[in-house]
Amino acid sequence: MKHLHSFARRAAAFLLAAVLCVGPAAPAAAARAAENEIEIRSAQDLAQLAEQCALDTWSELLEQADKVVTVSPAYDAGCMHRRNRYLVDHSAVCIGWGTGETGGTAYTIHYAEKQGLRIIRFLE
Predict the structure, then answer these.
(1) Residue 42 Cα distances to 12, 73, 119, 122, angstroms
(2) Where do runs of H (alpha helix) occur along 1-124?
(3) 66 in Cβ contact with 31 (< 8 Å)
(4) At 121, phi and psi to the nearest 5?
(5) Terminal CA-to-CA distance of the chain, rounded, Å?
(6) Tens-place pLDDT, residues 25-84
């Protein structure tokens, strides 16, 4: 259960960062919500944002979203891979956290590089 809660918090933080920073609608959202801006200037800022995210926050985000895309209707072995590719395919910038050369984050960063996205890495 602890792994699932940690995974959900990390997934929510990643999605929030993607929506706020690299989504096609980010400029419009930023313009209409100036008082609700979140600035991420360092890895520490991103870590604090991830710590503040909880499942209740996820529900609030869904209610406020301009658009919700369901990449997979249920959790399965490939759903995170499909989600990551979707995010890259619909972004101009990829923000990665960590130093690993294997795993989902490393794969996604390599895929984003191949697609010509600008890469921003936060190292642990």
Answers:
(1) 18, 33, 15, 7
(2) 2-21, 26-32, 43-52, 55-64, 79-89, 104-114
(3) no
(4) -115, 135
(5) 25
(6) 444 444 444 556 777 788 787 777 777 766 566 777 788 888 888 888 888 899 999 999
The answer to whether the CB of 119 falls within 8 A of the CB of 94 is yes
Question: What span, in angstroms and rounded, lies between the C-alpha atoms of 99 and 8?
Answer: 21
> What are 120's two structure tokens?
């921003």
pTM of the model: 0.52
**Which residues neighbour 59 within 8 Å (Cβ) at sequence distance 6 or greater?**
none
CA distance 75 to 85: 16
